[in-house]
Amino acid sequence: MSRLADALAQADRERSVTEQVVESFAAGEDPRFRLVMESLVRHLHGFIRDVRLTQAEWDASIAFLTRVGDITDERRQEFILLSDVLGASMMTVGVNSPARTEATESTVFGPFFVADAPAFEHGDDLSQGLSGRPCHVHGSVTSATGTPLLGARVEVWAADDEGFYDVQIEGTEFAGRGHLATDSNGEFSFWTVQPAPYPIPHDGPVGDLLTLARRSPMRPAHIHFMVTADGHEKLITHVFVAGDPWLESDAVFGVKESLILDFVEREPTSHGPHGRALEEPWSEVRFDIVLAEE
Ligand code: BEZ
Ligand code: FE
Ligand 1: does its nearest atom lie under 6 Å from the Cβ of 252? Predict the structure, then answer.
């Protein structure tokens, strides 16, 4: 056989593997399942053909994913981390947030959300002993038409001044996280600690991937929010601290210009917000949230 005939036979063989696998999912009942699986198989096979994946590379990929699974438990979610550093999380956020200019932008969820965090009242301190400078966070939740949304649920989670979430601190539960409801003016207000930049967990396989790429694991300082209100789309987002040195190179590609806010430094005072006495400098930020209608 000529070289050309060999190459054509090879291409045929490769195409036929893809078609067989696509066909094997075609009897699935759910049309969405069939669509997703067909596209996944075509892209995955296309990728393998594109890079001419070697057997050794396939072995290394399986070993890598096995390590991702091995290190994952209820306190460590390495699969989310992998999705985040590959930009898959932000791409999913992007395709699910139609360009509604009036609504607050969303960003990556991250691996540190914990369900069933405690409820707080207006003015409470969510930090519950997390170390850091006091930070007063307040704002409003409105619909795109400007109507204040009463009783919207504002869920917050944040790390301490060394960048550790409660779930990363041995023996700590529910610190720096919780939820509160907006009041009759659609306002919310709480204390936490001033966020600091921190590295995403990089002592596992995802960290090794970053090292190979000479990428930094750092994220700019931020506070996480998840906001829900009847008749409105759920918002998952952060506020970022203006001036942070890592805003341009977030390890998980989560920064959006509109989410960068001024955290204003304040002097000590005997009468801070909600009557709190502050013997050290503290900070304050206002975050006005707009939810898209469903
Ligand atoms: C976070 O901000 O909590 C986070 C997001 C993505 C990966 C790791 C951490
Ligand atoms: Fe975070």
Answer: yes
Indicate if ligand 1 lies below 6 Å from the C-beta of 111: yes
Cβ neighbours of residue 281 closer than 8 Å, sequence gap 6 or more = 133, 265, 266, 267, 268
Residue 233 inside a domain? The answer is: yes
Which atom of ligand 1 is nearest to 238's Cα?
2
Tens place of pLDDT per residue across the chain (294 aa): 689 999 999 999 999 999 999 999 999 999 999 999 999 999 999 999 999 999 999 999 999 999 999 999 987 899 999 999 999 999 999 898 766 678 999 999 988 999 999 999 999 999 998 999 999 999 999 999 999 999 999 999 999 999 999 998 888 889 999 999 999 999 999 999 999 999 999 999 999 999 999 999 999 999 999 999 999 999 999 999 999 999 999 999 999 999 999 999 999 999 999 999 999 999 999 999 999 998
State the distance from the centre of ligand 2 to the C-alpha of 112, rounded, in angstroms: 7
Going from the Cα of 158 to the center of ligand 2, the distance in angstroms, rounded, reads: 6
Query: Are both 227 and 264 inside the same structural domain?
Result: yes
Answer whether 84 contacts ligand 1 (Cβ < 6 A). yes
- Element holding 55 (H helix, E strand): helix 55-71
pTM of the model: 0.90
Task: Report the nearest atom of ligand 1 relative to the CA of 89.
Answer: 6
130 plus 25 within the same structural domain: no
The SS3 assignment for 92 reads helix
Distance CA 183, CA 120 (A): 12
User: What contacts 139, CB < 8 A, 6 or more positions away?
Assistant: 187, 188, 189, 286, 287, 288, 289
Spacing, Cα 113 to ligand 1 middle (Å): 9
63 falls within a domain: no
The count of domains in the chain is: 2
Task: Answer yes or no: is 71 within a domain.
Answer: no
Domain residue limits at 37: 2-53
Which residue, 53, 74, 95, sits at the end of a domain? 53
Ligand 2 center–CA 125 separation, angstroms? 18
Q: Whose Cα sits closest to atom 3 in ligand 1?
A: 110
